[in-house]
Each structure stands twice: as structure tokens, then as C-alpha cells.
Specification:
The termini are far apart. Among the domains are: 5-170, Galactose-binding domain-like (Jelly Rolls, Sandwich), CATH 2.60.120.260; 185-269, Immunoglobulin-like; 275-558, Glycosyltransferase, CATH 1.50.10.10. The protein has 771 residues and is an alpha+beta fold. It has 16 helices and 25 strands. The chain is globular, with a radius of gyration of 27 Å. α4 (359-379) packs parallel to α16, α7 packs antiparallel against α8 (531-545) and α10 runs parallel beside α12. The strands form six sheets. Strands 12, 14, 15, 18, 19 and 20 form a six-stranded mixed β-sheet that branches. The protein has a five-stranded antiparallel β-sheet with strand order 1-4-9-6-7, with no helix packed on it. The chain has a five-stranded antiparallel β-sheet with strand order 2-3-10-5-8, with no helix packed on it. It is 28% helix and 18% strand. Keywords: Carbohydrate metabolism, Glycosidase, Hydrolase, Polysaccharide degradation, Signal. Belongs to the glycosyl hydrolase 9 (cellulase E) family. Residues 183-263 form the Cellulase Ig-like domain. This is Glycoside hydrolase family 9 protein.
Amino acid sequence: MHMPAHWARLLGLMVCLLAGATMAPAGEVLDDPLLEQAGRAWWATNGVQLERGSGSVCASVPGGTADPWDAIIGFNGVPIRRDTHYRFSFTARSAEGGPVRAYVQDSVAPWTPVGQLLRTLAPAGAGDGPLIATTRFTAAAALADAQVVFQLGGKAEPWEICFSRVSLVTGEKAPDDASWRPSALRVNQLGYLPKGPKRASLVSKADAALDWQLIDAEQRVVAFGRTRPFGFDLASELPLHIIDFSEFADSGPSYRLRVGDAESPPFAVDRRLYDRLAQDAAAYFYKLRSGIAIDGALAGAAYERPAGHLGRGANRGDTDVPCLASETALKVYGAAWSCAYRLDVSGGWYDAGDFGKYVVNGGIAAAQLMATYERALNHGPKTSHGPKTSAAVADAELAIPEAGNAIPDLLDEARWELDFLLAMQVPEGEPLAGMAHHKVHGERWTLGPILPHRDRERRVLHRPSTAATLNLAAAAAQGARLFARYDSAYAARLLGAAQRAYRAAEAHPELLAPLTDGSFGGGDYADDDVSDEFYWAAAELYLTTGGAEWHAKLKASPHWQGPVFSSDGFNWRDVAGLARLQLATVPSALPKAELADIRGSVIDAADRLLATQAGEGFGLMYHPDSGIYGWGSNHSVLQNMAVVAAAYDLSGERRYLQAVRESMDYILGRNALGLSYVTGHGSTYARRQHALMFAHATDPAYPPPPDGALAGGPNSQPADDIAEAKLGGCAPQACYVDDPGSFSTNEIAINWNAALVFVAQFLADTADQPG
């Protein structure tokens, strides 16, 4: 029995190139590329009829299949060598025409593909002959017994396809999967603010300063000067010069820098530079919503889809979800656990590339969206008449269903996740009542490309955890404060849930999510220290209620006066830094001396980050103490920028504002790779991120990652086949590949995008502030 190829985790997807092939050259791996031998053991899944002829293999595919993997043919026994270059091709014809997905993949779980071809076969007579499809790839893994499979399902009508050639040739030249080469001049490809710093980095071994010119759209020289030799940049392992053209303040849509024969990508100088970026980054969340049909009129036609996991389809979704079976819990947690109840946990956002929903990641993501609103409310721009003008506090700014309901759009979007967090709370009267389930996802990994409403994996609730419970407490307490002016009943519900959660966490302070091997259908989100979550939850409860009880719990925390800002930035596992920022910037009744200490710690952290920035050749606020760029390093850069943004709000000192502006250059192209990490923003940007449903790079039938999606970024310890094969010996800042199989460098995630929303909106709100 051959398992369908849809179980394959798409870790090793390569670039598809079209080319012709008419004969079997030396180096052919397959023993019968012209299909002349009747002995090869082709197989087919149920319902597919195979017919062998001289020089052909034909498959009759039933109609009414929903997914490509509902109808598969293939054969086994293909040896694949790691780091070897191959050309994979086939020739086929069909009277009716239909979809074809061809894979070279492992023949055992998880059926990892090393090469693929995705084509639509036109009906005979509609084209100029048979389809000849070719791709080249480099195998990221050695497979002693690989298989070639053709997925043929997904068509309403029955159809037939005949193959006359299937070839796999080795000894090919390594494919060049880069369609571009970065300029030696690295700039913020989106552009620069008229009142902000304007710096670029030049890759050059020259010891002496070089002449630079700034060219406008008409090729006129509008500014010029000399570079400043920087020397060897440790993070990128590149020799650099710095160009500073900050004195140039004329707005314009297209400028370029020039040094000798090198010319930079185009960029703008514009005060409205970050408005669309902030909007796109926030609009990303609607497209990630679970439990609601996505309206193409709002999200764009490419992103229209039925509701995912809403109690319909193969797995019945998230409307009636049981707990993990006790025997499975024993494997995951080392102890038997289950529950007698079932929960409706529909709604919320899909976490990242997969369809899991995780309370610890959803909690910080919702919190940072709300913090974006709250920052604009308390520190944002005002007109001369007083009302706030930031888009972060506006209604009908985002294309979401709730626009126009007299509630700011960012709060509407956050509410979609808050409602999910509330649903994850264990009901009263049950064991562990008040705790929050750590996560919900399939019993096995969902494999794609696939849209969420087609997911067939049965969903299960995982054991409650102290960390998840405190995430719920913190986010709900914050939401109670912010929704009070718009929906008092909802605010009261949030506050009640937050207080119940905190009490439950106190009663179960060591119910920790374990680190497993990742084989149970979703990410672990393991955390063995929840003291920072207790601190964050107490902070939000204090800021909302002003209660002496919460003040006392804050002061009893080891994080009250301890260091909370690391070089890696705060994140879902380490939330103490976020709590400190909230205490420093949200109005409260904290005693003046305590508030001064809290704010002083933020200023001190910002000063350290400015010192770090001064030593970086690409102007970013990130240099981990270990020297290793971590998973989601772009997120770390942004969270460090959030710390410095808070220092600006607290002090009004322009150096902090200018530092945030310059650090954003790194995210948008002034980096080792000359690549913007935000889809749709810049001239060369990440566009092939790892995601089950934004899988256009894998299958053109799916939408691409939406504009405003942040790629995880360089990871010095890559953990996927693609990155491991391509990034050996990489400099920390160059350990990134824009490939859909590279989940360890190129995934997208809600918490990463929430940080992008915060920083982009800060930059939009402060665009007119002088430098």
C-alpha cells in the first residue's frame, strides 16, 4: 500500500524552470524513461485505473475528487544522492486536460519531496502538441528508495492522461535559483523620510573614501559626497563603507545612489513612506483569520476562501474539539491527561505557516496590536484641535468586516483573537478550571499546499499550561482596559476571565508545556520559566484596575527591578520586556519614584541599543551577545526598535527617533543580502515564504504571501533541509533563503507581524517629527 503524497511536509521545494527534453542522455537515473518496459511496477491509489502500453502509461482519473492527492499514480525504487543536481521532466498528453503535480519524494513518512513540477495539462488540440515539463533541483537529502508520484486529483469531471516519458537525469549543472544579484549599494528600498536619517552601506574593499552621487529620476545629480570606510562588518562578514546623505530632504518618488559603476535600487523620499506599510502589516491578520469566510472584496480576490475549521468538511473543524487522547498525552507530556468536555474554539488567527492556533503566540500578538492602538492613544500625533489622527486609533482604516462600527479597526482585529483566547479557557466545574489550553491543532501535521477549509486532520486540544493561562490573563486584562469605552459588557467579561486565569495560574504554577520532537501535529511553544508571564499578567491587571493586590504582586516579582531587556529582544517566551514597556508608557497610579525607576530602565536599555547600532555596518539595533542570529531574527530587530521607540515617547529625545528610523532600513533592504524582508515593499523583497495557504511559489493555484508579510529572517542555526543544504558556513546576517521549504528562515508568524505593525505605525505617526 503506497500512502498518498499529500502527507509530505513540503520542506524541500525547489524553483520551477521550464525547459524541453527529447531524449534520455547519459546520467539517466530511471531505468525506463521511455516507458517501454512492462516490468516497472507502477501503482495507483483507489479509483485510478492504470493501463500500460508500449512507450506509454495511461491513467483514468475519476471525477469529483476534491484535492490533488485524491488520485495518485507513481513508482518506487529511485536512488537520490544528497547535494546532487538533477533534471526532472515528463512528457504527457490528455484529451480532456487536467491538473498535474509531479514529485520526486521519499517513499516513507513524512514523504519529503526533493523536486517537483506543477502544471496544468491543456486538452489535446488546444496547444501545440504534448506537454513537456522540466525542472532542475539539488537534492537536500539522500534517499535510498525515493518514489516518483503524479497527483492528478482535484477535477470535477473524469479525465485521462497518458505519459510517454518520465526522466530523472543527474550530473546537471547546479541550478541558479537567484533571479537577481544585490547591488553593492544597500539602501532602504522603500525609501527615507525627509526629516529622517538617510544612510546606505556600500560593499567595498577600498581602504580610502570613495565618491558617491545621489541621482534623481531624470538622472540629475542632486547630492554628492564621500563615503566613510567602515571596515569589516562581523555580522555580514563584508567590508563596508557608509554613505550619509541625511542633509538631502527633497521629496521625490525615485532616487538612486551611485558609486563608480555601482548603482543602488530605486527608493523614495516621502513623509508618507510608512503609511501603506503599517496598513498592509495590519491587514495581514484578516487573511489569517480562522472560522470566517474571507471576503475577496476586502482581502483581494486571490485571498478569498471559505471559512476554515468551522465545523464543516472532513475534520469538523474547531467548533466541537476534544482533548488529546490520554495515551497520546502520555507520549507528549510523560503523564496521562485528557478531559471529558469538548470546546468550541473556532475563530482566532492561524499562527504561522501551519493551521495551529497557539495561546502563547496569539496572546503576545493580540497584545502588541492593542499596544499599537494604546501607544497612539497616549503618545500619538494630534491636530491643533486635539483629536488623535493616527490610523491606529481610527475606524474604517482597514478592509475588514467590522470597519465602520465605531470601534478602532486594530481593536476589532485584536478582538478576533481575544474571543479565541477566552474560548480556550477550561470551563468552571472542570479540573483545572480557569486555566487555558496551550494550543489547538491537528493530531498530525497538516501538509500542503492546502487551504484551511480543506484540512482533513482531526483537531485536538492540548493540555492547559501556566504560560498560556497567563497570556490569556495579560491580553484579556489589556483588552478590558481598551474596550471599556466601546463595549462595557465585553470589557467586564475580559476582566473577569483575566482574573480567573491569574488565580488558576497561581494554583498551578508549574504546569509547563514540554519540549517534544515536534511529531504531534504542531509546534511545541515550550517554556520552562513562567516568572515573566506572571509579571506581565500582573502588570496588565494593575494598569487596568489600579488595584493594590496587583501592585503588590508586581513588586514581589523577580522582574520588578531585575534586567528584562536582552540583546535578542522580547518575544513570546520572554515577555518581561513587554511588561516593562507597558508599565513605563501606559498612564497609571504608580508612585513617582517607582515610575521613574521603570522609565529609567527603558532609557538605559535604549542607550545600550544605540551603542549596538553604532557598531553595525548596516545600522540595525541587533547584535546578540552570542553572535548568533536566532530564529525570527527580524522580529528581534523590531522588538528592540520598540524599546527605543518607547524611550522616544518618554523622553522626546530625537536621537531615539532617528535610531528607530535608521534601524528600519535593515528590514527593508539595507542588509547583507540586499533584500527587503517585507513582501510587497521594496524593489526586491521576500515573496516565497513558508506557508500552507500562501503557497504560490509551490503551486500557482494558491495565492502568494500578502503584501505586508514579514519573513522570519536570518537564522544562524537553520533547521530545515533547504537551509541546511544552501547555507553552510553562512555569515550570521546571510543565513537566510527565500524558499518555501525553509521554515527555519522564511516562515511567517502573527507575533512577528504584530511587531511590524507596531514599529511601522510608530514611524508613520512620527514622520513629521524633526530629526
